Amino acid sequence: MVRPTSDVEYEQMLLSRHGLVHHRNVRREGGLERSAYILLSRIRVQGPMSIGELSTAFGLDASTLNRQTGAAMRSGLVDRIPDPDGGMARKFRITDKGASLLDEERERTVDILDLVMADWSDEDIAGFAACLKRFNTDIERLAGRPWPRP
Prior knowledge:
- With about 150 residues, the chain is mainly alpha-helical.
- It has six helices and two strands.
- It has helices at about 5-20, 35-45, 50-60, 60-75, 95-115, 120-145, and strands spanning about 80, 90-95.
């Protein structure tokens, strides 16, 4: 017997290929790369973070995070500051430019979702959002890496 999770797997695979705003046919000039979008989103919600904290949060090695934060710094999206709590490690914080571009990218994403879901009722959209949140929080729980939500 085929389990319903087989349908979830297939639809999740299809969803991951779309990428919405990050798709080359939809992404506008000046938009954020996917990794920068996720990095800035995490720092915005959690506040300044060190490479070690980012590595733990994303489950990625420090060299990967060094490349991502380096690119974000060169683009003026984040800057490095002394640890506000007095620790030794310097932390990355989102800049005004990074915050502005993140807001613009989120607005573009919501606009695209509005187009995709134009025929959905507000109830259907809210129900879908609740299921996605549950799905994500269960993955985060199993991975031991919860994502803070605003």
